[in-house]
Design goal:
71% helix; two-stranded antiparallel ribbon; 213 residues
Length: 213
């Protein structure tokens, strides 16, 4: 209690007020802003070093390689994750489900590789388990296994309850089941937490076209 209030001042209340009044309406906006700032700092840093230290070409290549190494590590340890994404792009959902389930199993055996997410791009979520579950859910949708898809999306929300793509996935599940009221609720939630604004009719059209329903 002493740390919460001092001389009648509610410091936690002040922090909550600042968070409520922040310029970011949701996590996605904050992440987008941070990525722009980070990219600007990297470009500025390279420019500063080039102008002030007259770096040789091999030195610039070495610095670029050092920046890219963490991403290469993620691709190595997340091989099944990226393989699953490739299978989805090639419209081979059965193979994709195998890859994503293998990756989720790998995460359970080596949970430390989750932290490589911070060296990858995570606009909507920094929790790779949630991201993999959403991709798995989309693979199930292509196979028209709606119960499995719903479970994958809900499992993703258990990992990251603010993950808008999981909410969007549940909206797609309910559309394909013909439960438009529930679909509208989940789409509204997704948009509230950072999904690009889209009308329900347009989302339904795109969903049915994507999954041939």
């Amino acid at each position: 209690m002493y740390f919460q209030t001092l001389h009648g001042i509610d410091f936690f209340g002040i922090v909550r007020t600042i968070k409520e009044k922040t310029m970011f309406k949701h996590r996605v906006a904050r992440n987008r802003f941070l990525y722009v700032i980070l990219l600007g700092l990297i470009i500025t840093g390279f420019g500063y070093l080039m102008i002030n230290y007259q770096l040789k070409m091999y030195q610039m290549v070495l610095m670029a390689a050092m920046i890219l190494i963490p991403n290469r590590l993620a691709r190595y340890y997340w091989f099944d994750f990226f393989a699953g994404k490739r299978e989805l792009r090639r419209k081979r959902p059965e193979q994709a489900t195998i890859r994503f389930r293998q990756f989720l199993e790998t995460l359970r055996g080596a949970p430390w590789i989750k932290w490589l997410m911070f060296f990858s791009y995570g606009l909507y979520s920094f929790k790779v388990e949630a991201v993999a579950l959403v991709y798995l859910g989309h693979a199930w949708l292509y196979l028209k296994k709606y119960d499995d898809a719903e479970k994958a999306f809900r499992d993703a929300l258990l990992v990251d309850d603010k993950y808008v793509m999981a909410k969007r996935g549940l909206a797609a599940v309910y559309i394909l089941r013909g439960q438009n009221n529930e679909a509208q609720q989940w789409l509204d939630l997704a948009c509230r937490f950072g999904h690009p604004k889209i009308s329900f009719d347009k989302f339904e059209e795109l969903t049915r076209k994507e999954y041939n329903a």
